Here is the input.
Amino acid sequence: MDHMRRHTIRLDNIKTVVLDEADEMLDMGFREDMETILAETPSDRQTALFSATMPKPILEITDKFQKEDAVFLKMPAKELTIPLVRQYYYEVSRKNKEEAVSRLLDYYNPKRSLIFCNTKKMADDLAQALTGRGYFAEALHGDLSQVQRDRVMQGFKNGQTEILIATDVAARGLDIDDVEAVFNYDVPQDIEYYVHRIGRTGRAGRKGRAFTLVVGREVLKIRDIERYCKTRIEARAIPTSADVKNSKSEKILDDMIKLILNEDLSEVVAMVERKLNDEDFTAIELSAAFLRNAMGENKYEVTDEEMLIEPWEKSVKRKKNGDKGKKKGYGKEFRKEFRKEFKKSFKKEFKKDIKEKRHKSEKHREEKRNDGKIRSKDIRPDGSVRKKKMFR
Here is the structure.
């Protein structure tokens, strides 16, 4: 539009106009801009409009700027997700989400990953946290200038940045073919966003993985996504420290075997032989030291026990059935026996208390009798004291 105002662009010869992500453009307040641009284009142009949803404002634009013979095409729900993308979700506590992402990155070790957050602040915070843990991560969101955005995208494309953390709006239009894994750090607020997110991996016939971190009731959104997309999202547990360690060692050893088979290592072998002759250790010990150094130190801040969490649906079912003690190992038989013992103990203590009170009462009456305050004729046969009647 700036070019239109400065007359530095001519739209007279436009043959085709494509409006992609039309619903998002409307949500961001660009309807008037869209209409202004379309009004300056030739009336005999071809107009193609792509939108995840078709609200009334979108239909009004189609009626106004498309020809009467325009064809409406709708993608069936069964094709919304990509079969080559394996989809998993993990139930975690909110405070351990950063730890969960770190473990998944180490376990699967994707060369290029895309992490989605619902807010710009969350994207910045997560990028800073992962950078502090030693990952090459950058944030991408609407607060970045075009220069900053270009720098971040260039770093992600050329491999300097391994992890791109983005918001949904900022990620619109990203075209990167070799993203191996997509992480939903936050469950998307709209099911359509989920489709757009996981569509960033598994492109050009490649396989991909999509991981979603779920907190509490958010598992219900996973069920909604499964119904809408007609797909299956598998529940999994966060890898333990031992799982990550085994995965790292297997990958490193596989890489070493490929190096032995494909490279000439005669010069390096001679160096290792000289070192072994000079020092008092074996080749196996030296190999183990190399492997330990390549695996790095354990940077996890949360123990495996703290990462464990009861699935939300299971906990709701347990509470609904009234079996609140089951989590601690207190079954129905235990509670039945406990109630029985409690009643027996309560009756015993109650009788003892009544007996003590009765004894104190008799002792008190005896003391008053000795003081002359209670006459013998005022004591009833059952031991109670007859009250004196006052007459005026």
In short: The chain has four domains: 2-74, 78-239, 242-295, 322-392. Residues 242-295 form one domain.
